[in-house]
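Could you help me review a protein record that somebody else here produced? My question to you is simply how this chain folds and whether the tokens agree. Thanks in advance; the entry in question is below:
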Amino acid sequence: MSGHSKWNNIKRKKEKSDSQKAKIFTKMGREMAVTVKEGGADPNSNGKLRDLIAKAKSMNVPNDNIDRIIKKAAGGNEKNDYENNFYEGYGPCGVAVIVETLTDNKNRTAGDLRHYFDKYGGNLGQNGCVSFMFTQKGYIVIADDSLSEDKLMEDCFEAGADDLNYEDGVCEIYTDPNDLRTVREALEAKGYKLDTAEVAFIPSTYTMIPDEESAAKMERLLELLEDHDDVQNVWHNWDNEDNGEEE
């Protein structure tokens, strides 16, 4: 996995401006509200909510915001007709892209995404057109260069991890999607601070963009997708380590 880290993309989200952070908080809130409606407001009995709270904290969402979102959703006063959908397409030079959305207007969302792909040299395809190039895995990151690599590896495998990659103080841990919560909680119980823990689409192959103009278009496409109010997650197989830019 060296050179193809998803962590750079996650780190970039963490470092966004205050206005962009507010949008991330709003997206997390929407996802939590749906989860509370489906499984209740108690994270002890609603495992999915417990996972989302952990994810929100890793994205630096304040505890007060999390509590307020849960209480509001539990009150049942908020309109909550959101639908979860996945879209697949190709960016410039055939880069594969998967977009997860949570929307109350599927036609609006699909139209916006199609416009973005068309404008920046890609195309929105049918479901299944690129997902075969990805594998869904639990994905955990521990970024702390003060930790012992050997001890960290031992603890990760003891917690139930399937595989990991350690480089430059960043440990990327992979699990079966169904084991993510168990592994996350085991590592937290050992005292580790997790920088992210989520189910992600991990590419099996990567695509390079050979020219700066196409790379700039791909970067802009990703920015628009990530900033769209209805988009929860974006995964892609762009190998841009040789472009001099972060993913």
About this structure: Residues 242-247 have pLDDT under 50 and may be disordered. The first strand starts at residue 83 and ends at 90.
